[in-house]
TrEMBL record:
<feature type="domain" description="N-acetylmuramoyl-L-alanine amidase">
    <location>
        <begin position="17"/>
        <end position="166"/>
    </location>
</feature>
<keyword id="KW-0961">Cell wall biogenesis/degradation</keyword>
<keyword id="KW-0963">Cytoplasm</keyword>
<dbReference type="GO" id="GO:0046872">
    <property type="term" value="F:metal ion binding"/>
</dbReference>
<dbReference type="InterPro" id="IPR002502">
    <property type="entry name" value="Amidase_domain"/>
</dbReference>
<dbReference type="Pfam" id="PF01510">
    <property type="entry name" value="Amidase_2"/>
</dbReference>
<dbReference type="GO" id="GO:0009253">
    <property type="term" value="P:peptidoglycan catabolic process"/>
</dbReference>
<keyword id="KW-0479">Metal-binding</keyword>
<keyword id="KW-0862">Zinc</keyword>
<keyword id="KW-0378">Hydrolase</keyword>
<comment type="similarity">
    <text>Belongs to the N-acetylmuramoyl-L-alanine amidase 2 family.</text>
</comment>
<protein>
    <recommendedName>
        <fullName>1,6-anhydro-N-acetylmuramyl-L-alanine amidase AmpD</fullName>
        <ecNumber>3.5.1.28</ecNumber>
    </recommendedName>
</protein>
<dbReference type="GO" id="GO:0009254">
    <property type="term" value="P:peptidoglycan turnover"/>
</dbReference>
<dbReference type="InterPro" id="IPR051206">
    <property type="entry name" value="NAMLAA_amidase_2"/>
</dbReference>
<dbReference type="GO" id="GO:0071555">
    <property type="term" value="P:cell wall organization"/>
</dbReference>
<dbReference type="GO" id="GO:0005737">
    <property type="term" value="C:cytoplasm"/>
</dbReference>
<dbReference type="GO" id="GO:0008745">
    <property type="term" value="F:N-acetylmuramoyl-L-alanine amidase activity"/>
</dbReference>
Amino acid sequence: MIKNAICTQAEYCPTTHWDERPEQTTISLLVVHNISLPPNEFGGDYIQYFFTGCLDPKLHPYFASIYQMRVSAHCLIKRDGQIVQFVPFDKRAWHAGVSSFQGVNRCNDFSIGIELEGADDVAYTQTQYQSLSTLTQELIQDYPAITLGRIVGHNDIAPGRKTDPGIAFDWPQYRQMI
Ligand SMILES: [Zn+2]
């Protein structure tokens, strides 16, 4: 259930990595991503630290290259299906970067970004599909401009630059579960 732009079944983890959407914006796109920190390693709280600006650069060489990035997503779905929310859905999270959907640039303005803890070529867990599809249903209910044709991967809006959620993401299964 979504109440005041927050998913009630999520753990809320506030960040300063967000700002206001442009006035009169209709939220009309859902973007599915993946992330794992360090890359291809699952578990731990490093993604939460990253999205809140608290990642310790000394813990891993890769962290040293990214810890100053100010990025976020609305939600993260961990391997066990737990949802962590960082940014209320009516605010602008910083997940898409340089992007375009059907000729409209800056997808962060009008989209919701959901990160799956994962990697492009590693199967996602069934509980992740369950959490993602339930959350998607709730989002469609609250933001009806997010139609089925407006649920995309990061790779779809930043082709050549981004590959997530990757070959391992089962779009037919996800679409069937929505
Ligand atoms: Zn992404």
